[in-house]
Amino acid sequence: MSNDLSDLLTERLDDLPVPPPDLEAARAAGRRLRRRRRTAALGGACAVVAAAVGLSATLSVVRGGDGGEPARDPAYASVGPLDFSAGARAFADPGVEIHLGGRTFDYGDLTYLDTDAVATPQGIVFFDAGRPMLLDARGDVSRLVDGPLDGPEGFHPTAKVDRDGRLVAWATLRDGVATLTVRDLVTGEDAGSTTLSCGGCDDLVVDGIDQGAVFVRDASGTRTWSWESDAWRDFAGPRTRVADVRNGVVLHTGPAPAHPGDRTLVKGAIDAQLTLDGRYVLYWSSTLRPTHPEDEPVVLAVGPRTMESGVGWYAVDTDGSILVATADRTVYDCELLPGSCIELGRLSGEGGDPMFIGVDM
After folding, report:
1. Which segments of the chain have a pLDDT < 50?
2. Inter-residue contact 331 to 346 (CB < 8 Å)
3. Which DSSP string do the residues of 134-197 spell out, in sequence order?
């Protein structure tokens, strides 16, 4: 075994927290899925097996990628090239199969991707024991943060991507100090970072990133951090939740934010989404509500037009299109304007409700 490989494996093992006795319960606690799925136990077991297979399959990988790119993490086997040119198209039949970048995988191959992950044009950002990771278009997984970190326990800050799909914000924890980071996924460089002393940080959440600011919530309320000026500003009290923020538009629940600045405020449900341009609200139907009074609603060609008229599942894809899963588990990719759709495939329904990667509905 080479010294480089030995060092890499030693670092990997040293970073891992001591597992609790009930591994399955720990994995379930780490996922914030809004709906219980009957395959959760299967997914936890498959993830452990997939990680072990990935480690044995990539023992020949050593530190250092081509051209200074991050080296592939040996705990994850490469899944091969992915095509994100038409959007990530990341959706799943839980426990059965996962669709990503124009390809279909057995669910057990990619169980680390769930609604906590974030789809971007450069790949999928997800967390491994509190560490942000990137599954890129080559199909390789690499660490976005090196060095020892605290395990998650109650710490689940989430990660968020800006409207252009280039900048991603996340928080990591070490010894009771959280580090908030904004990374440019195209260059691989940090746009900014800052630290917060918050103990266990159980209530720290990254709710959004937009126009040079990260929206950060804790028990006291929501603040924004501007990384270029390293300035913090109050935004809203503890009863307000930011559901989404895009292009200067903030979708929120609860009282209106007390310090919105020049942002447009739109009230909506916590599990609603904004389109990438911030012009429409997507919420459990194929009719998208405009955020500006001069615009008309957009109606997609497939799916129920109201929440009351049928069942559908929705996500805004990385290219701005709308992914729709209809009641018969057929998945479509719809252009926002004029609302026309193409069929991507049909899910079996054996795993329960369709799941869109990074969308906690």
Report:
1. 1-5, 7, 9, 13, 17-68
2. yes
3. EEETTS-EEESS-S-----TT-----EE-TTS-EEEEEEEETTEEEEEEEETTT--EEEEEEEE
- Measured between alpha carbons, how far is 279 from 297 in angstroms, rounded to an integer? 10
pTM, two decimals, is: 0.81
**H or E element in which residue 6 lies:** helix 3-15
Closest listed residue to residue 358, CA positions, set 140, 145, 54, 87 = 87
Here the tokens at position 141 are 């997984």
Give the up-direction half-sphere exposure of residue 80: CA atoms within 13 A in the CB hemisphere: 5
Please check whether residue 105 is in contact with residue 97, taking contact to mean a CB–CB distance below 8 angstroms.
Answer: yes
- What torsion, rounded to 10 degrees, do the Cα atoms 9, 192, 203, 114 define? -50
pLDDT tens column, 2-53: 444 454 545 554 555 444 434 333 333 333 333 333 333 333 433 333 333 3
Pair 41, 24: CB distance under 8 Å: yes
